[in-house]
Automatic annotation (TrEMBL):
SUPFAM superfamilies given in the database record: UBC-like
Family in the record: Belongs to the ubiquitin-conjugating enzyme family.
Protein name, per record: E2 ubiquitin-conjugating enzyme
EC top class named in words: transferase
PROSITE patterns: UBC_1 (PS00183), UBC_2 (PS50127)
Domain UBC core intervals: 12-158
SMART domains on file: UBCc
Sample GO molecular function, one term: ubiquitin conjugating enzyme activity
Active-site residue numbers: 96
Annotated EC: 2.3.2.23
Record Gene3D superfamilies: Ubiquitin Conjugating Enzyme
Keywords in alphabetical order: ATP-binding, Nucleotide-binding, Transferase, Ubl conjugation pathway
Length: 275
Protein backbone atom coordinates (compact mmCIF):
# COMPACT_ATOMS: atom_id res chain seq x y z
CA UNK A 1 0.00 0.00 0.00
CA UNK A 2 1.42 3.37 -1.01
CA UNK A 3 1.85 5.88 1.83
CA UNK A 4 2.05 8.72 -0.70
CA UNK A 5 -1.54 8.21 -1.82
CA UNK A 6 -3.17 7.06 1.42
CA UNK A 7 -1.29 8.98 4.10
CA UNK A 8 -4.07 11.59 4.45
CA UNK A 9 -6.75 8.95 5.10
CA UNK A 10 -7.13 7.68 8.68
CA UNK A 11 -6.41 3.93 9.17
CA UNK A 12 -10.02 3.20 10.15
CA UNK A 13 -11.25 4.89 6.93
CA UNK A 14 -8.79 2.89 4.84
CA UNK A 15 -9.99 -0.31 6.48
CA UNK A 16 -13.64 0.56 5.83
CA UNK A 17 -12.93 1.54 2.22
CA UNK A 18 -11.02 -1.67 1.57
CA UNK A 19 -14.00 -3.68 2.80
CA UNK A 20 -16.47 -1.67 0.71
CA UNK A 21 -14.36 -1.79 -2.45
CA UNK A 22 -14.01 -5.55 -2.11
CA UNK A 23 -17.79 -5.85 -1.80
CA UNK A 24 -18.35 -3.60 -4.84
CA UNK A 25 -15.89 -5.65 -6.87
CA UNK A 26 -17.52 -8.97 -5.97
CA UNK A 27 -21.18 -7.83 -6.14
CA UNK A 28 -21.36 -4.63 -8.20
CA UNK A 29 -24.63 -2.66 -8.46
CA UNK A 30 -26.63 -3.12 -11.66
CA UNK A 31 -24.93 -1.42 -14.57
CA UNK A 32 -21.89 -0.36 -12.55
CA UNK A 33 -18.42 -1.86 -12.45
CA UNK A 34 -15.90 -0.46 -9.98
CA UNK A 35 -12.18 -0.41 -10.67
CA UNK A 36 -10.30 -1.35 -7.52
CA UNK A 37 -6.79 0.01 -6.96
CA UNK A 38 -5.27 -1.39 -3.78
CA UNK A 39 -2.54 1.25 -3.84
CA UNK A 40 -4.84 4.25 -3.85
CA UNK A 41 -8.18 4.31 -2.07
CA UNK A 42 -8.57 8.09 -2.39
CA UNK A 43 -9.59 7.84 -6.07
CA UNK A 44 -12.37 5.43 -7.02
CA UNK A 45 -13.03 4.66 -10.69
CA UNK A 46 -16.28 3.23 -12.05
CA UNK A 47 -17.74 2.35 -15.44
CA UNK A 48 -21.46 3.14 -15.65
CA UNK A 49 -23.68 1.61 -18.34
CA UNK A 50 -26.17 3.98 -19.92
CA UNK A 51 -29.64 2.96 -18.68
CA UNK A 52 -32.02 1.45 -21.22
CA UNK A 53 -34.60 3.86 -22.64
CA UNK A 54 -32.37 6.91 -22.20
CA UNK A 55 -30.20 8.77 -24.74
CA UNK A 56 -27.20 7.19 -22.99
CA UNK A 57 -28.24 3.62 -23.79
CA UNK A 58 -25.61 1.42 -25.46
CA UNK A 59 -22.79 3.50 -23.99
CA UNK A 60 -20.45 3.05 -21.03
CA UNK A 61 -19.29 6.15 -19.14
CA UNK A 62 -16.18 6.23 -16.97
CA UNK A 63 -16.20 8.37 -13.85
CA UNK A 64 -14.16 8.87 -10.69
CA UNK A 65 -14.79 9.84 -7.09
CA UNK A 66 -12.07 11.79 -5.27
CA UNK A 67 -12.09 11.40 -1.50
CA UNK A 68 -11.02 14.34 0.65
CA UNK A 69 -8.57 14.06 3.55
CA UNK A 70 -11.46 14.25 6.06
CA UNK A 71 -13.68 11.69 4.32
CA UNK A 72 -16.30 10.55 5.25
CA UNK A 73 -17.11 13.78 7.11
CA UNK A 74 -16.90 15.59 3.76
CA UNK A 75 -18.47 14.18 0.58
CA UNK A 76 -16.31 12.96 -2.30
CA UNK A 77 -16.12 14.95 -5.50
CA UNK A 78 -17.41 13.24 -8.61
CA UNK A 79 -16.24 13.66 -12.21
CA UNK A 80 -17.14 12.03 -15.51
CA UNK A 81 -14.00 11.21 -17.48
CA UNK A 82 -16.09 10.32 -20.54
CA UNK A 83 -17.63 13.30 -22.31
CA UNK A 84 -21.38 13.37 -21.86
CA UNK A 85 -24.19 15.79 -22.71
CA UNK A 86 -26.18 16.09 -19.48
CA UNK A 87 -27.67 19.04 -17.54
CA UNK A 88 -26.05 18.04 -14.23
CA UNK A 89 -22.60 17.28 -15.60
CA UNK A 90 -20.33 20.18 -16.49
CA UNK A 91 -18.18 20.31 -19.60
CA UNK A 92 -15.15 19.50 -17.39
CA UNK A 93 -16.97 16.39 -16.10
CA UNK A 94 -17.90 17.69 -12.64
CA UNK A 95 -21.08 16.11 -11.27
CA UNK A 96 -23.75 18.17 -9.55
CA UNK A 97 -26.00 16.01 -7.39
CA UNK A 98 -27.39 16.73 -3.93
CA UNK A 99 -26.01 13.49 -2.52
CA UNK A 100 -22.50 14.85 -3.07
CA UNK A 101 -23.42 18.25 -1.61
CA UNK A 102 -26.10 19.30 0.87
CA UNK A 103 -27.64 15.83 1.28
CA UNK A 104 -24.35 14.15 2.13
CA UNK A 105 -24.26 11.97 5.22
CA UNK A 106 -21.07 10.32 6.61
CA UNK A 107 -22.98 7.04 6.90
CA UNK A 108 -23.58 6.91 3.13
CA UNK A 109 -21.32 4.47 1.36
CA UNK A 110 -19.77 4.45 -2.10
CA UNK A 111 -22.42 2.03 -3.36
CA UNK A 112 -25.16 4.56 -2.62
CA UNK A 113 -23.24 7.36 -4.33
CA UNK A 114 -22.65 5.32 -7.50
CA UNK A 115 -26.31 4.27 -7.71
CA UNK A 116 -27.44 7.91 -7.36
CA UNK A 117 -25.08 8.98 -10.16
CA UNK A 118 -26.48 6.30 -12.49
CA UNK A 119 -30.04 7.35 -11.58
CA UNK A 120 -29.06 10.88 -12.62
CA UNK A 121 -28.72 9.55 -16.19
CA UNK A 122 -32.32 8.34 -15.99
CA UNK A 123 -33.81 11.50 -14.43
CA UNK A 124 -31.78 14.71 -14.89
CA UNK A 125 -32.52 17.84 -12.84
CA UNK A 126 -32.35 20.78 -15.25
CA UNK A 127 -33.22 23.26 -12.46
CA UNK A 128 -29.72 22.82 -10.98
CA UNK A 129 -27.84 22.53 -14.24
CA UNK A 130 -24.07 22.76 -14.57
CA UNK A 131 -24.45 22.50 -18.33
CA UNK A 132 -26.85 25.36 -19.08
CA UNK A 133 -27.26 24.44 -22.75
CA UNK A 134 -28.30 20.87 -21.88
CA UNK A 135 -30.61 22.08 -19.09
CA UNK A 136 -32.37 24.65 -21.29
CA UNK A 137 -32.69 22.20 -24.18
CA UNK A 138 -34.16 19.54 -21.89
CA UNK A 139 -36.83 21.95 -20.65
CA UNK A 140 -37.73 23.44 -24.03
CA UNK A 141 -37.21 20.66 -26.56
CA UNK A 142 -36.63 17.17 -25.23
CA UNK A 143 -36.22 15.60 -28.68
CA UNK A 144 -33.41 18.01 -29.51
CA UNK A 145 -31.79 17.34 -26.13
CA UNK A 146 -32.03 13.58 -26.67
CA UNK A 147 -30.52 13.91 -30.15
CA UNK A 148 -27.51 15.78 -28.75
CA UNK A 149 -27.13 13.29 -25.89
CA UNK A 150 -27.24 10.32 -28.30
CA UNK A 151 -24.69 12.02 -30.55
CA UNK A 152 -22.26 12.45 -27.63
CA UNK A 153 -22.91 8.85 -26.57
CA UNK A 154 -22.15 7.52 -30.03
CA UNK A 155 -18.92 9.53 -30.34
CA UNK A 156 -17.41 9.50 -26.86
CA UNK A 157 -18.92 6.66 -24.82
CA UNK A 158 -17.13 3.36 -24.44
CA UNK A 159 -18.69 0.28 -26.01
CA UNK A 160 -20.20 -2.35 -23.70
CA UNK A 161 -18.21 -5.57 -23.48
CA UNK A 162 -20.01 -8.62 -24.85
CA UNK A 163 -21.63 -10.80 -22.22
CA UNK A 164 -22.09 -14.55 -22.18
CA UNK A 165 -25.60 -15.68 -23.14
CA UNK A 166 -27.66 -16.97 -20.22
CA UNK A 167 -27.69 -20.75 -20.06
CA UNK A 168 -24.94 -21.16 -22.70
CA UNK A 169 -22.98 -23.52 -20.47
CA UNK A 170 -26.01 -25.60 -19.64
CA UNK A 171 -26.90 -25.74 -23.34
CA UNK A 172 -23.40 -26.92 -24.18
CA UNK A 173 -23.57 -29.51 -21.41
CA UNK A 174 -26.95 -30.71 -22.67
CA UNK A 175 -25.61 -30.99 -26.21
CA UNK A 176 -22.61 -32.91 -24.92
CA UNK A 177 -24.86 -35.32 -23.02
CA UNK A 178 -26.97 -35.90 -26.14
CA UNK A 179 -23.84 -36.68 -28.17
CA UNK A 180 -22.68 -39.10 -25.49
CA UNK A 181 -26.10 -40.79 -25.47
CA UNK A 182 -26.03 -41.17 -29.25
CA UNK A 183 -22.53 -42.61 -29.03
CA UNK A 184 -23.70 -45.10 -26.42
CA UNK A 185 -26.59 -46.19 -28.64
CA UNK A 186 -24.24 -46.62 -31.59
CA UNK A 187 -21.88 -48.70 -29.49
CA UNK A 188 -24.74 -50.97 -28.43
CA UNK A 189 -25.88 -51.32 -32.05
CA UNK A 190 -22.35 -52.22 -33.16
CA UNK A 191 -22.08 -54.89 -30.47
CA UNK A 192 -25.47 -56.30 -31.41
CA UNK A 193 -24.55 -56.35 -35.10
CA UNK A 194 -21.41 -58.33 -34.35
CA UNK A 195 -23.17 -60.85 -32.08
CA UNK A 196 -26.28 -61.13 -34.29
CA UNK A 197 -28.53 -60.23 -31.33
CA UNK A 198 -31.37 -57.73 -30.99
CA UNK A 199 -32.34 -57.89 -34.68
CA UNK A 200 -35.94 -56.78 -35.17
CA UNK A 201 -38.39 -59.44 -36.34
CA UNK A 202 -40.56 -58.75 -39.40
CA UNK A 203 -44.19 -58.11 -38.56
CA UNK A 204 -45.35 -61.46 -40.05
CA UNK A 205 -42.90 -63.44 -37.94
CA UNK A 206 -43.60 -61.43 -34.84
CA UNK A 207 -47.31 -62.11 -35.26
CA UNK A 208 -46.77 -65.86 -35.72
CA UNK A 209 -44.97 -66.17 -32.40
CA UNK A 210 -48.13 -65.21 -30.51
CA UNK A 211 -50.66 -67.54 -32.24
CA UNK A 212 -49.80 -70.88 -30.65
CA UNK A 213 -52.66 -72.96 -29.20
CA UNK A 214 -52.61 -74.38 -25.71
CA UNK A 215 -51.99 -77.84 -27.11
CA UNK A 216 -48.97 -76.76 -29.11
CA UNK A 217 -46.47 -76.36 -26.33
CA UNK A 218 -43.69 -78.52 -27.75
CA UNK A 219 -40.60 -77.06 -29.40
CA UNK A 220 -41.32 -78.94 -32.66
CA UNK A 221 -44.78 -77.43 -32.99
CA UNK A 222 -43.52 -73.92 -32.21
CA UNK A 223 -40.74 -74.24 -34.79
CA UNK A 224 -43.25 -75.52 -37.38
CA UNK A 225 -45.43 -72.46 -36.84
CA UNK A 226 -42.48 -70.18 -37.49
CA UNK A 227 -41.54 -72.10 -40.65
CA UNK A 228 -45.13 -72.07 -41.95
CA UNK A 229 -45.12 -68.31 -41.65
CA UNK A 230 -41.83 -68.13 -43.52
CA UNK A 231 -43.16 -70.31 -46.35
CA UNK A 232 -46.37 -68.24 -46.67
CA UNK A 233 -44.49 -65.00 -47.06
CA UNK A 234 -41.86 -66.54 -49.33
CA UNK A 235 -38.56 -67.89 -48.11
CA UNK A 236 -36.68 -65.70 -50.56
CA UNK A 237 -38.71 -62.57 -49.67
CA UNK A 238 -37.12 -59.75 -47.68
CA UNK A 239 -39.58 -60.07 -44.81
CA UNK A 240 -38.89 -63.78 -44.22
CA UNK A 241 -35.19 -63.61 -44.99
CA UNK A 242 -34.24 -62.76 -41.39
CA UNK A 243 -32.88 -65.91 -39.71
CA UNK A 244 -34.06 -66.79 -36.24
CA UNK A 245 -31.55 -69.28 -34.78
CA UNK A 246 -32.59 -68.40 -31.26
CA UNK A 247 -36.04 -66.80 -31.06
CA UNK A 248 -37.72 -65.77 -27.84
CA UNK A 249 -41.38 -66.73 -27.97
CA UNK A 250 -44.22 -65.58 -25.76
CA UNK A 251 -46.77 -68.15 -24.47
CA UNK A 252 -49.37 -67.66 -21.72
CA UNK A 253 -47.51 -64.65 -20.26
CA UNK A 254 -44.17 -66.45 -20.07
CA UNK A 255 -41.11 -66.36 -22.31
CA UNK A 256 -40.09 -69.70 -23.81
CA UNK A 257 -36.68 -69.93 -25.47
CA UNK A 258 -36.62 -72.31 -28.44
CA UNK A 259 -33.34 -73.32 -29.99
CA UNK A 260 -33.66 -75.19 -33.27
CA UNK A 261 -30.78 -76.97 -34.86
CA UNK A 262 -30.09 -75.66 -38.35
CA UNK A 263 -30.06 -79.13 -39.94
CA UNK A 264 -33.44 -80.03 -38.42
CA UNK A 265 -34.93 -76.79 -39.68
CA UNK A 266 -33.69 -77.47 -43.20
CA UNK A 267 -35.16 -80.97 -43.12
CA UNK A 268 -38.54 -79.73 -41.85
CA UNK A 269 -38.56 -76.96 -44.45
CA UNK A 270 -38.15 -79.49 -47.26
CA UNK A 271 -40.89 -81.73 -45.90
CA UNK A 272 -43.28 -78.83 -45.50
CA UNK A 273 -42.66 -77.67 -49.04
CA UNK A 274 -43.75 -81.08 -50.33
CA UNK A 275 -47.14 -80.75 -48.59
Amino acid sequence: MSRATNENLPPNVIKQLAKELKNLDETPPEGIKVGVNDDDFSIIYADIEGPAGTPYESGVFRMKLILSHDFPQSPPKGYFLTKIFHPNIATNGEICVNTLKKDWNPSLGLRHVLIVVRCLLIEPFPESALNEQAGKMLLENYEEYARHARLYTGIHALKPKPKFKTGAISESTTALNVDQSNTSVLNVDEKNAVSGAALPLPSTLAASTTTFTKGGSGPDQQASAVLNSMIETGVSGSAAAVPAPAATLKKEGGLVKVQVDKKKMDARKKSLKRL
